[in-house]
Amino acid sequence: ETDLVLTDIRDGYRVLTLNRPDRLNAFNADLHAALIAALHAAEADTSCRVLILTGAGRGFCAGQDLADVAASPGEAPDLSGTLARHYNPLVRKLRALPMPVIAAVNGVAAGAGANIAFACDIVLAAKSAKFIQAFAKLGLVPDSGGSWFLPRLVGAARARGLALLAEPVAAEQAEAWGMIWRAVDDAALLAEAHRLAAHFATQPTAGLALIKQALDASESNSLDQQLDLECELQGQAGRTADYGEAVAAFFDKRPPRFIGR
Ligand code: T3D
């Protein structure tokens, strides 16, 4: 059987490729299990300081595999169970990983597939890629964090339009709306993702992980709480070897050599 998630180990980072191309990399339980295992393996590898998440074939991810639902007609599907067992732990893991995660959206990202991209730290998309909040068309609710990410990324008016109309948004529109970091030419997508990953792999990883934490917490903190959190996180950042190295390199007038801790 083919690997549902391909792992390509590079110098300082890993590329994880969702690999069910004939279904546009739609999620079934096996793909979920393979992806979460690949994320745990990446986290356990201390030499891995960045992840790229992309899709095999012409799609990034078409969300939930609807064939799974069609397979048991007449039976009420336990969607809460699927979210609780699979999608929610996946989104939580992506947010909590102590390293930058780059989504390289190579083609259509629909339903949970779109929202899993938004859970990543930097979203690059091929210009031919589209983002679709497909849920409304199925009578479902944006999940995998979609109802949380959308208003924060694009504002209330656009979030409502996207969620209720379920119309595709092209990559360049997504960039213009601030939904993603950048839309790039199709042929340049992977090269750009590798360039960014190679850059991050030389950066102060522990500090980057603290930045992720600070930005996530800011979504629900008051300014007062956030100032306290910045105090605490900056204390931790200041104790990393990389901060010492950055200051030493500054005065030596040389580029820093970060070890990620
Ligand atoms: O279950 C729960 O717990 C709830 C969780 C829900 C999370 C969700 O993600 S709900 C949203 C589910 N996803 C969708 O509704 C998207 C369905 N797919 C589409 O609308 C279209 O496929 C796309 C717009 C994504 C792409 O369109 P197009 O024309 O480029 O490709 P296609 O021909 O529709 O798809 C190619 C093949 O992939 C096709 O198979 P075939 O005919 O070649 O054998 C198609 O059936 C298959 N495919 C695409 N998406 C899915 C899928 N198969 C199963 N599940 C899919 N989601």
Keywords:
261 residues, alpha/beta, 2-enoyl-CoA Hydratase, Chain A, domain 1, six-stranded mixed β-sheet, four-stranded mixed β-sheet, 10 strands, binds ligand T3D
Overview of this protein structure:
The protein is α/β, with parallel strands linked by helices. It folds into two domains: 5-200, 2-enoyl-CoA Hydratase, Chain A, domain 1, CATH 3.90.226; 205-252, Lyase 2-enoyl-coa Hydratase, Chain  A, domain 2 (Orthogonal Bundle). Helices cover 50% and strands 16% of the residues. It is built from twelve helices and ten strands. The strands form two sheets. The chain has a six-stranded mixed β-sheet with strand order 1-2-3-5-7-10, sandwiched between helices. Strands 4-6-8-9 form a four-stranded mixed β-sheet. α1 (29-44) runs parallel beside α3 (79-96), α6 crosses α7 (156-165) and α10 (205-218) runs antiparallel to α11 (223-238). 40% of the residues are buried. The protein binds ligand T3D. Ligand T3D is lined by residues 23-24, 26, 62-67, 79, 82-83, 108, 110-112, 132, 134-135, 138, 140, 143.
Task: Calculate the terminal CA-CA distance, rounded to whole Å.
Answer: 38 Å
Q: Classify the beta-strand content into a percent band.
A: 15-25%
The count of strands amounts to 10
Tally of DSSP helical segments: 12
Major sheet: size, sense and barrel closure?
Answer: 6 strands, mixed
The top level CATH class name of the largest domain: Alpha Beta
H/E element order: EEHEEHHEEHEEHHHEHEHHHH
* Radius of gyration computed on alpha carbons: 19 Å
Structural class: alpha/beta
CATH architecture of the largest domain: Alpha-Beta Complex
